[in-house]
Design goal:
The protein is an alpha/beta fold and 428 residues long. It has two domains: 69-271, TIM Barrel, CATH 3.20.20; 277-413, Lyase, Ornithine Decarboxylase, Chain A, domain 1. 27% of the residues lie in helices and 21% in strands. The strands form two sheets. Strands 1, 11, 12, 13, 14, 15, 16, 17 and 18 form a nine-stranded mixed sheet that branches. It has an eight-stranded parallel β-barrel with strand order 2-3-4-5-6-8-9-10, surrounded by four helices. The structure holds ligand LLP.
Amino acid sequence: MPNTFTERLDLEAIAEQVGTPFFLYSAQTLRDRIQAVKQITPGGSLQARYAMKACSTRRVLEEVRESGVWIDAVSGNEVLRAHQAGFPLGNRPPAILFTADVFRDNALAVVQETSVLPNVGSPGMIDDLAAAGYQGPIGLRINPGFGHGHVRECDTGGPSSKHGIWHEDAERTRKAAAAAGLPITLLHTHIGSGPQIEEFNRNMSRLVEFFEEMLPAYPDLEAINFGGGIPHPYQPGKTEVDLAPLGELLSSAHASLSARAGKSIRVEIEPGRYFIAPSAVLVTRVHDLKSTAENDKGPGHKFAMVDAGFTDLVRPAMYGSYHHITVHGRSDGDREAVVVAGPLCESGDVFTRDEREFLEPRELTKLRRGDLLVFHDAGAYGVQMSSYYNSLGRAPQVWHDEEGFHLMSRREALEDITSNECFEPLAL
Ligand code: LLP
């Protein structure tokens, strides 16, 4: 079910202060999700990480840290942002895991300097680490040959996925790590994001068997990480996922993997979306209503023109993802089907589409100019995937907790967008 925390709040008052569009986060919703995950992975032999790529805003990271959940980071800068939010560096314990398929920018230097655990997603990264003089433990991210996802782009297991080390190359990579003197303390896989929970649980069981077979070849192993991907129900009427079966599966995986290894093997998961998706909404204003009429190219539509675009929330434009939309403060009255579209210079800047990229008008309370619309469940891959297209600054983020409202990031201005521009000679 989409979140409802905004119903009780005065969004107009916030809009007056920070303008529209803006993201609004609910601390309580985030805390509820953290507690749900901690129920099945309380720490110690069953440990959760937060895949911070879903939302890396500092206050969110601090909340996660206070709960004892660890981090999965994908870039050097994510490692540094996690540390700025108070997560310890080093690999004892490995509170920050660096999982990537490529060392880009400062990533290799950050791994070297901070000793966070590098989780190698491509065989050549062993050579990169060795060439840089890295001398610590590593993880291996394996592509087990199967996966799942809410769309094909989010399925990260199987032959069409660029992620991880293909399972038939694991042995060769293990030998390369041994030759480079890098002990493998973690085996990892993340096979996709947001499938149906039944499929997710089935694949998690398959992964347990998969790792049980691999385990004997890895004497230095301390942990196995089963990745993220717990689905979030974005559609109304869909029930919350029950994490109890996953909890049982992870506990029994810990027991069986530990028995096989002859020592305790920590079992980890690293959801991103499940923690943060329902914890934020994107609030936008309706600037205009206009229509097209049917002709030989297709049917006509009524368009609600709002000030949020795919620069703020790209999921509908990129994957045809569903985000529930409500009209703030007006849930009853006549309804009509509208296409909700943004300000960007792209016909695809539309929030009501299906997976085949067709317009999918949405039944909403009859709109008026000036209405505030709430795009629900925008916390995961919302602000984090926002961009500078059309030179619109990124929308501000507001945090709501028992102490009131806080601005967590300002609306970006022209200076923010152009701050890295220069015209310097290159000494070639
Ligand atoms: N671990 C690794 C190594 C990952 O690459 C990801 C997500 C996760 C964990 C967390 O997955 P989650 O629990 O959030 O599904 N932009 C897409 C999702 C891309 C996921 C990328 N990796 C979306 O908006 O649906």
